[in-house]
Specification:
With about 600 residues, the chain is of the alpha+beta class. It is built from 16 helices and 18 strands. Its main location: membrane.
Length: about 600
């Protein structure tokens, strides 16, 4: 019972009416914000990674340009052939290597091997230059002799086979820029140059591209070697993520993809000496952090709004249901016979008006009961007298039968026929057991009535009854047609001697509607009266209570009322004039709904 109360339903309705839109709004806002933030973040990171790629490319280009000094210095290639015998040539080579070292920030050491003289030279910032004779360059440079320029992946720094000095730095992460020195325009190799570059400059560029706390950045070469990483333990290792490797090996120069609960943005550096790829990994928790915060704020607002709605609904429901409970209590006491209940409720809102009207209604009922009780006592005697003076209708019916038999015995069959018609009309009218009859029975009753009227008016009256066969068995209320036909003799029959005409027809319309049309050629209804009569019928058909008088057509009112009782206000009655003169009455009886209900029962 609690769940069926107005209070429970009101709370349920308010919760549903607010919770569903709020949840939909929060979901849609979260999805839309999430997608918007994703697009904005991707766009911002693409620009950021592109800028980082540009800076790294410029840095490598500067190293490359610095290494090209071996060709721009006209004495360098000649000095390579003179060392180690010519000390001046050796000093000039040392000077050039030191100039390269000082030109570019972050150079750890430079190694040079002259092929013809077999002289290897090492220049570092912390020690004096070292040199020694070697038949071949240091082993780490040999794989790159076949390239003009190449970049060795990040590795731990070393002294290229020279004895380490106390001031030299080792075990530092560097990448090496290799250049093979040839005797241009021939391809004869004169020497190999290896420039070790610390990751300081690369790290300085990369650290501007990501947040170390919740993001990750990788610089990977074409073979999957990690040049730089935000995690030191990954530097110099092979990349193990197959999905990342697959995207690196594609022909795309830039792009983004989602994998492992994170968004990845990548940009490729394509230079003549290396192909690095910058990859930034942004976890979804970081990417959608603002969307999550906004959703949490909206959820908090929604919870507060729901609490306000619940308390507000409880307050309003109490204000609504408390008067109803009080009124129900008064009704229970009245139902038990206590009609003098003291109805007490003082409020200026609608509930106060309702209690005031209920109090007035009970006063009126009490007064009516008292008056009706007195009238009942006063009318008992009158009713007894009326019963004693009442004529038994069966006596009249039997008397008419006896007179008809006497007329037949005296060879007056016409009188017998008329009396028989009158007796059948009386029997039809007196039989109160049948509230519903078929159209065939109703039409037969009207035919008998018209036969009597034709006897009265002779040749001045003609009538016809044309009923479609499928309409004959349709049920309808009793005594519907006779009052409508009777109106013709009361109001429409031409008394100037002209022949009167009355036609009755029926047909079935769609949706189980029985239409009966009664037409006559009598006097037409004046326009004002017809307008007023039509207005009254329309009001009654729409359920509005109308006050009818004899002048308005009380017979029409009674017919329409019984039709509406039978078909639950689905039937209708229309009246209009026809040309050149006459009146048409159309009756529409909706039988389909009624038959469906009866069959269901």
């Amino acid at each position: 019972m609690k769940f069926r109360s107005i209070r429970s339903r009101l709370i349920q309705f308010m919760l549903l009416a607010t919770t569903i839109p709020l949840l939909l709004s929060i979901s849609i806002t979260y999805i839309h914000t999430k997608e918007t933030i994703k697009e904005q973040s991707l766009e911002e990171n693409k620009h950021l990674i592109f800028q980082g790629k540009t800076n790294l490319s410029n840095y490598l280009d500067n190293i490359n340009k610095a290494s090209l000094v071996v060709y721009t210095d006209t004495n360098f290639l000649r000095n390579l052939r003179k060392i180690p015998d010519d000390y001046r040539a050796v000093a000039e080579v040392f000077t050039l290597l030191q100039n390269i070292q000082s030109t570019i920030n972050g150079i750890e050491r430079i190694y040079l091997h002259a092929t013809q003289s077999g002289q290897s030279t090492l220049v570092t910032p912390a020690t004096f230059p070292k040199r020694e004779f070697r038949s071949e360059p240091y082993v780490s440079t040999r794989p790159y002799e076949k390239y003009t320029t190449a970049v060795e992946p990040t590795h731990k720094s070393h002294d290229y086979g020279f004895p380490p000095s106390p001031t030299s730095y080792s075990e530092r992460d560097v990448f090496t820029f290799h250049r093979t020195i040839t005797n241009i325009p021939s391809e004869k190799v004169l020497g190999v140059l290896a420039i070790d570059v610390r990751l300081d400059a690369v790290a300085a560029i990369c650290e501007q591209l990501f947040n170390k706390n919740n993001e990750q950045l990788l610089v990977v070469d074409e073979n999957g070697n990690i040049i730089y990483s935000g995690r030191d333990e990954q530097i110099g290792q092979k990349l193990k993520d197959e999905v990342l490797l697959e995207h690196i090996h594609q022909n795309l120069t830039s792009g983004s993809f989602e994998n492992g609960g994170a968004m990845h943005v990548f940009e490729k550096m394509q230079t003549p000496y290396t192909e690095w790829t910058i990859i930034k990994r942004i976890p979804n928790a970081t990417l959608y952090e603002r969307a999550t915060q906004l959703t949490q704020i909206n959820a908090a607002i929604a919870v507060i709004a729901l609490l306000i709605i619940v308390f507000g609904t409880l307050f309003i429901s109490v204000r609504i249901t408390e008067p109803i409970k009080r009124l129900t209590s008064y009704m229970n006491r009245i139902q038990s016979g206590q009609l003098d209940v003291d109805i007490d409720w003082n409020s200026r809102d609608e509930t106060g008006i309702m209690f005031a009207r209920f109090r007035q209604m009970m006063d009126t009922i009490n007064n009516l009961i008292l008056r009706e009780y007195r009238l009942e006592l006063a009318n008992k005697t009158n009713q007894l007298k009326a019963l004693q003076a009442q004529i038994n209708p069966h006596f009249l019916y039997n008397t008419l039968q006896s007179i008809g038999t006497l007329a037949l015995q005296n060879n007056v069959p016409r009188i017998y026929a008329l009396l028989s018609s009158l007796a059948k009309i009386m029997r039809y009218s007196m039989n109160n057991n049948d509230a519903l009859v078929t159209l065939r029975e109703e039409a037969e009753h009207v035919r008998l009535y018209l036969d009597l009227q034709k006897e009265r008016f002779s040749d001045q009256l003609e009538f016809s009854i044309q009923l479609e066969p499928e309409t004959l068995r349709v049920p309808m209320p009793k005594m519907i047609l006779q009052p409508l036909v009777e109106n013709y003799f009361k109001h429409g029959l031409d008394n100037q001697g002209n022949q009167g005409r009355l036609d009755i027809a029926s047909r079935m319309k769609p949706h189980g509607v029985l239409e009966i049309v009664i037409e006559n050629n009598g006097e037409s209804i004046p326009p004002d009266e017809l307008k007023h009569l039509t207005w009254q019928l329309e009001r009654q058909q729409t359920g509005v209570q109308a006050e009818w008088t004899d002048e308005d057509g009380i017979g029409l009112h009674n017919v329409l009322m019984r039709l509406q009782l039978y078909t639950e206000h689905d039937s209708a009655l229309h009246i209009d004039n026809i040309k050149p003169q006459g009146v048409r009455i159309t009756v529409e009886i909706h039988t389909e709904a009624k038959h469906t209900e009866e069959n269901n029962e």
